[in-house]
Amino acid sequence: MTTLQPRPGTTASLLSAIGGAAPREGGGVVTVPVPAGQLETAVHHLAAAGARLADLFAADGGQITLRLVWGLDTERQYLVTETTIDAPEYPPLSDVAPAAFTEECEIYEQFGVRPAGGKPLNRVALPPGAGADFPRLGHQPPEAPEEVHAPHTVGGQAFEFPFGPVRQVGVESLYYGLVTSGEEIVDLYLFTWHKHRGLEWRLRGRRPAEAMFLAERTEGLSATAITWALAAAVESALGVQPPPAALLTRGIALELERLYNHAAAMAALCQSTGLSVGQAAAEIALERLLRLNAATFGHRYLFGVLDAGGVRRAPDQAALRDGLPGAYGELRRAADALLATNSFMDRLEATGIVTTEQARRLGLVGPVARAAGVPIDCRLDQPTAPYAEHPPALAVRDAGDVLARFRVMLDEAADSVRLIGDLLDAGPGDGTAALPGGGGSGLGWAESPRGEALAWVSLDEGGRITRARLRPASVRNWRGFDDAARSQNVFTDIPIIEASFWLTVAGTAR
Amino acid sequence: MPLWFARGLRRGIVTTRYPARPDSSAADLPTPPAFRAGLLDHRLADRLVAVCPSQALRRDGAVLLFDVGRCTACGRCQEAAPGAVTPSGQFELAGTSRASFVKRIGLVPEVAG
Amino acid sequence: MSATPAPAVPDEAALAAQLRQRVASQFRRSLHIRTLDTGSCAVCEQEIRLLGAPHYDLHRLGFFFTPAPRHADLLMVTGPMIRAFDVAARKTYQAMPGPKLVVATGACALGGVYPADAFVHGAVDEILPVDVWIPGCPPSPLALLQGLLVAVDRLAEKVSGLTFTAGEAAQ
C4 to chain A nearest CA, in Å? Predict the structure, then answer.
């Protein structure tokens, strides 16, 4: 990390407005310590300048350090503010309150520190009755967080009922609180504590190579993206550059991951609208893509490809070149048939609308944000190899409904096929750069099929993880789900909206 | 829905004949390891136990215990000992007795070289 | 029907095995399956969903999914049995009328990936009586089909006869 010299541009003026000690720069990330007394003003300046709050998390290294990760998407950078908190409360982050709320709750129940102002915080990750001896990253809070309850009533005529966690067959356990007035959804809130496995807690004390195995299984459908983010965080912390051929392989794996996830989302959309033939057609495409993954990388879900410092496996290029056109052809033909089926299109149009304002206010990412007119994609906004040399096309729509999200996914799938071809031509391979000794901290990122996945890691002098922060896109985007469900939708729309978000409970609960 | 009907007919049948006939797609699946007992000594066995991320390997004296139920076919044991550990090719692994998943692999005292 | 206590006498063991086979064979060609996620990473669920897909089509074997535990014959359980979920798991099992079968599905459910600790029980059979175990991470749809066919006694299980030593012929 080198000390940043003052330079013209928005970042420099932002940094001077934020104040604090000398910032450090490394790997496309500027890290700036901000004293607690200046945090509220700093947040205000960043929010006013249009910076996107990408994550908020804490670490306990004797004193609590609060880190806010900001996407300066037009500056092609991430900015991380670090603030030491030595009191039970930190300044209220009102400018980013909607985007930060879930994280503030998580920090409170894990570390016992909360924003000043007394606003109620909910129990989010830990199970009910988790006592002092329940594993936490920090300390039990002095007062238990509140249990979530519905804030809305409709003239006193609302009916609130819990739904799940055991729900329809073949989907993850998920617990909704539904508030309805007749068929109309008044409010919807989600619980995910029943799937909290404590991934961040488990990664402490592990070496990066061991951590990859668990990181893959944080949200298995984003195995490549999450291990890429964690590996990149480790590489940034230790100043390691993976071999260029390995980075091309990472890109191929990530685009294959995007392809099969979008096919699976399409199948789920058909199932949610009751279109069995469409579902079958999408599933044929999905199965061919999964078999292509197995033929290319030895695993249907691309587990075991990435490692800290590079990749463990090179792709079977002949199998990929051979199988991709046919598999994508199935996907394309199914999609074209769906786009010509009016009964299907009618269910998608104007359903589950997320407005541009909602997407920005809540800090949403991925196809959900892009379909709502927010043009963010960390492959383009914070480009690293191989995307710096092989940029994807940005797929943006502005209707913000299920149909827009579907179209964005189809555009991205077509672009993924093109990208895979380019990456193959550039000569992918395997190989892992050796990790040097010593410690450090770093931020890593990758554009998962659901959106930006982030990881931040700090390593001690022995190379072991002291704090790993995993932030799959699902953590960001579930908070947009209740807004999408509330906008004039009925019960039968919920599965359609859920399929179009294509999030996981595992990735949120970790 | 003539569009879908015609597409379906043209597409044909993709359904597997399994279990009546084997399915060729199984060839690309990752499978648990097979161990060459004559090539595994205590030291190598301990290395394999340390490298397994899923608690599938344990050493009990002169025996390596392999719980294939816990195996994720990640391949790390094979990477650690490429000559001594190879893919088994077995994917039909369901069983009705939990104990039958734990395999005992005899270890040699020491392997030269 | 699913809980067979350890037999004290050889005759009991034979009897228990016969009883298990009779129960399983009731479902031979008509089986209704309820799935249960106790904390998976979501990939096992994706493979299970593909059982209904054209490539695998579990309906041709007389297998069906049902969302209602009351109508289910077999409970297909994924995940390491997160402690915060175990009450929901027991309630789902109890809501199924007998005779019923439980299939622990995937490495997490069999005690792999996550060891037992304050977050997870570690394996499904810590909480529910399991009849069939299907390894894999994830088990592919073919492996899932084999597991279901073993559960209803239409295929003999192989794993007890495999030694996982080199020299054994791969299929």
Answer: 26
Distance from CA of C6 to the nearest CA of A (A): 31
**Structure confidence by residue, pLDDT tens digits, C106-159:** 999 999 999 999 999 999 999 999 999 999 999 999 999 999 999 999 999 999
Q: Are residues A223 and A101 in the same domain?
A: no
The amino acid at residue B18 is Y
Residue C34, pLDDT score:
97
Chain C nearest-CA distance from A11, in A, is: 38
Nearest neighbour of A294 by CB, restricted to B1, B11, B29: B29
Q: What is the pLDDT at residue A189?
A: 81
Contact A284 B14 (CB under 8 A): yes
pTM of the model: 0.93
Q: Does B12 reside within a domain?
A: no
User: In whole angstroms, what is the distance from residue A242 CA to residue A12 CA?
Assistant: 30
HSE (CB half, 13 Å, CA atoms) of A26?
21
Q: Which of A80, A96, A115 is the last residue of a domain?
A: A115
CB A372 within 8 A of CB A357: no
B81 is a domain residue? yes
Fold entry, domain C30-154: Rossmann fold (3.40.50)
Asked whether residue A458 is assigned to any structural domain, the reply reads yes
Residue with tokens 């009991």: C12
Residue A411 phi/psi, 5-degree rounding, is -60, -45
- For position A72, which CATH number holds? 3.30.460.80
Which H helix or E strand runs over A10? helix A10-18
A20-61 pLDDT, tens digit per residue, is 667 788 777 889 888 888 888 889 888 888 889 999 999 988
Q: B35–C54: do the CB atoms touch at under 8 Å?
A: no
Number of domains in chain A: 3
Give me the CATH number covering residue B98. Answer: 3.30.70.3270
Task: Please report the pLDDT score of residue A267 as a whole number.
Answer: 97
pLDDT value at residue B26: 93
Residue A177 lies in a domain: yes
Question: A340 with A434, same domain?
Answer: yes
Q: Does residue A474 share a domain with residue A357?
A: yes
Does any domain span residue A126? Answer: no
The tens digit of pLDDT for each residue in A243-274 reads: 999 999 999 999 999 999 999 999 999 999 99
- pLDDT one-digit tens code per residue, B45-59: 999 999 999 999 999
In chain B, what percentage of residues exceed pLDDT 70?
Answer: 96
Which residues of chain C are within 8 Å of residue A168 when distances are taken between CB atoms?
Answer: 67
Buried-state track C28-56, b at ≥16 Cβ within 10 A, e below 16: eeebbbbbbbbbbbbbbbbbbbbbbbbbb
pLDDT score, position A155: 59
Give all chains having 3 or more CB-to-CB distances under 8 Å with chain B. Answer: A, C
- Residue A63 lies in domain: 2-115
CB atoms near residue A5 (< 10 Å): 8
Helices (H), ranges, A340-432: 342-348, 356-362, 366-370, 378-381, 402-425
pLDDT beyond 70 at A370: yes
Of A119 and A106, more confident: A106
Q: What's the confidence (pLDDT) of residue A365?
A: 96
pLDDT value at A317 more than 90: yes
Q: Given C54, C133, C142, which is nearest B95 (Cβ)?
A: C133
Domain that holds residue B90: 31-113
CA-wise closest residue to C34 among C99, C98, C101, C88: C101
Number of domains in chain B: 1
Q: Edge to edge, what strands does the sheet with A159-163 contain?
A: A159-163, A175-181, A184-191
- Tell me what the pLDDT averaged over chain A comes to: 90
In a domain, B10, yes or no: no
* Residue A342 and residue A325 share a domain: yes
Residue B1 has pLDDT above 80, yes or no: no
Give contacts of B7 with chain A, Cβ < 8 Å: 281, 333, 337
Question: What's the token pair of residue C55?
Answer: 């490539």
